[in-house]
Amino acid sequence: xxxxxxxxxxxxxxxxxxxxxxxxxxxxxACTFAAVPAAADDWSDCLSANIDKVISGCSATIDAGSRAPxxxxxxxxxxxQIYQQRAMPDLAIADxxxxxxxxxxSTDALASRAAALRLxxxxxxxxxxxxxxxxxxxxxxxxxxxxxxxxxxxxxxxxAQSDYDKAIALQADNSAAYVSRGNVFAxxxxxxxxxGDFDRAIAATPTYADAFFxxxxxxxxxxxxxxxxxxxxxxxxxxxxxxxxxxxxxxxxNAKGxxxxxxADYDRVLAIxxxxxxxxERKRAVLAxxxxxxxxxxxxxxAVAIAPTAPAVSPPSTPxxxxxxxxxxxxxxPAPATRRGAAPPSDRPPGEAPQVQxxxxxxxxxxxxxxxxxxxxxxxxxxxxxxxxxxxxxxxxTVHARKRHLPQAFADFDAAxxxxxSDANIRIARGMILTGARxxxxxxxxxxxxxAFEPKKAGALVGRGLVFLQKGxxxxxxxxxxxxxxxxxxxxxxxxGRAIVFRNKGQVDRAMADxxxxxxxxxxxxDALANRGxxxxxxxxxxxxxADxxxxxxIDPTSTFVFVGRGLSMLASGQTDRAVAAFDQAIAMxxxxxVIYTLRGRALLAKGELERAMADLDRALQLKPAAAxxxxxxxxxxxxxxxxxxxxxxxxxxxALDGSSVESYFGRAGVFEAQGKAERAIADLRKAxxxxxxxxxxxxxxxxxxxxxxxxxxxxxxxxAGSTAAGESCL
Length: 731
Description:
Blueprint: E1 15-18, E2 24-26, H1 42-47, H2 51-64, H3 69-85, H4 89-102, H5 107-119, H6 123-136, H7 141-153, H8 157-170, H9 175-187, H10 191-204, H11 209-222, H12 225-238, H13 243-256, H14 259-272, H15 277-295, H16 352-368, H17 372-385, H18 390-402, H19 406-419, H20 424-436, H21 440-453, H22 458-470, H23 474-487, H24 492-504, H25 508-521, H26 526-538, H27 542-555, H28 560-572, H29 576-590, H30 594-607, H31 610-623, H32 628-640, H33 644-657, H34 662-674, H35 678-690, H36 696-715
Antiparallel strand pairs: 1-2
């Protein structure tokens, strides 16, 4: 039986690269073989600890073909692992597949192949292999570890943590599992738990560079820069060829204000990866920001901290036109000299407090101008000078939230609230971000805490309304918005939220009236403009919608929601090239969002680019396997490709997931018609006509369904003369 758990000495070799969201990517060799003493024969070389001998030894063993099938499977697995370590996943997958041809129950081959498939973004195939491996051997810790990594790659943090927990329960000193789980904790803002896991990994494997790197990241997010720099330096010493180690340490030096060392580390990044755009930009930004502060009267030689660009937790998916909007940018907490609940004065050197207040004022102006990176520069410096000033933490949290750096935002909000526990605006801002992260219970707790102090705080009521809106509880949301408006009849956010409730209830005229009221109060309310645009798209007024989206884009060019809306308006008006361009921008800004991939797939389908459309829809379904809209749209692509069997499979699944979709029934009717099944086609067309359209695309599909029924009536004769009255149809 092959070894199921890798020894500690192999732990560092299990890692190669970083996940998109900052989680260490475990390119797991699904097994390691006990080191065999050096021997002359090929089989010993294949199983040896000398990697240079493995490929030649395993290849000779495979070519000879004289060993038992289980041994040949081991040879393929061992060689595949080396290919995988050398970033040759296709060769690795081929070897793991051949291993399974010789030993179908090889859990090592299954787990190893899954790890390689994950690197190629073939997540469903990887999960099938891992589920099978675990069904064969429920004690296979490495299978849980690889599966956890697949979930982490897909940013499904709860599932990832569950699998890492199981891997650790099966092997208490599994350092790779501790690092992986630590990174999940770091992504979800549980920094102390993350540090605990990195500590355990280091205790198990003191030479594990990624464990030091992960712990350094956690310390940096906590603001403990000296500890972060120490850990980054340990990681660099253990693996001096990893550019991201230098980049992270440069960011930490930068946050401390040690400009020379920051630039030196960015230079090291560029020596390893000369085209690293981020390192180039960071270096330029440090120098530019330093010059700007010098011009504004900062002390000569002041080092400028540029906030590191860390990967973020994926934001909530952009909703379709009938759903609630993404959370608006949180309110920026004002910065008065004193505030109820403020922390006691810190032990600052004389003259430092005015400098901190000056930096806060500069940051507020930069935020107003949407110069978020520069604002973080200034706030880093303010926090370095006085880490007990809660407003600096609150402002930096706001900026991180707008940049979708949610773990950093939550860490800063937590620090700000600890320093200013009775500050209503800070709690409301955190509640808004928690709502966007779909942490509804925590968000409501923040809003309720504010209302306990200030029962007439309308902003907290708007926050509660947004929670209920995101949960689909429209009546509860409506009640909260109306309570807010009773307190403050000029609150634009409350009108905008109530408008979305009306839209969701199908009361489009009332929705439009409330959007208009919100914009009369605040003509630059980007969310009201964007949502009014969505409402116009729903009602078929795409040209008017485009004007709203254009204006919203001028106000907030960083809003994914606005680009999605613009793409929808272009698509609805038949401007497919412009629609694809808008969706391209939205995907570049938001990362992996199944809704946006589905919309771009729809636009590409309209352009006739079937292969690109299929790729987008496959990606959407990888991200959200139960996405009925993506499933139905892929069915339309198969239909265009004349693959009616696959089209029917996808459309059947779409209808099973959402039996109220006009488009799904209309699409399936087309498949039945192409297969010569007229009665079934007519039944689906009738169903499409009877349903209520949920958006402009369903309205168009329903209109087409009515035309198809009329065409069938003309083509299909009645069963006998005189069987219907004049003007009636036998259908």
